[in-house]
ME1 protein (Symbiodinium necroappetens), 209 residues
Amino acid sequence: MRVILLSWRSYSAWKASFDKFIPKLVVMCFHNWFAGASLGLLPWMWLLRPLDHLLGRPVEGVVREGTPPITEVSGPMVWLYHQSLNHRRQYEAWSPPTTTWIPENEEDYNQFFEKVRQTVPKDRLFEWDPRRNTMEELCEFMEIRPCPKRGKPGRAINTWIFERDFPVASMAVNTLRLFLHWVNWRLCCAFGRVLMNRCRRQAAHKKPD
């Protein structure tokens, strides 16, 4: 086991970044929750497997082989699977009682990193600093040869990542999810009409002659 420790920021720098990130995260999660809710009212995701087989098994290939990385290649089918998985696994992990641990003060923040340093052998620990470390150093630590990347990593965007990187897949999946909201609404209306008609007929039969 190898551990990459992201200890490059001070507590104050981390806290400032965290406070700036949370509002954007809330907006993104609300959007994903609203759009993805259309898949939860009825078991639409049951159609994913037969549809995946029909389209060449792109999802099955990623799940079984782990390649290509979904952060680098993500078509509509894989994007849909990944987003639905977020609702059932990732967002759940952010809710009590499994909420991700957040340090309350500088002492807790520093103690966490120090505990990792004391627990993990030095030859298995890499304290990664994206401002000075290169991808070659990371590959060397992970024993990845040849290294597929070069130089220092670019500054990452931490919200709406998949929407920015895969706009076609994002647009296709969001269109589908909004369309399913309409389908769900129409089905609910049809069910309501059937129920109302039945209630009216029963009420008519109960009227005295």
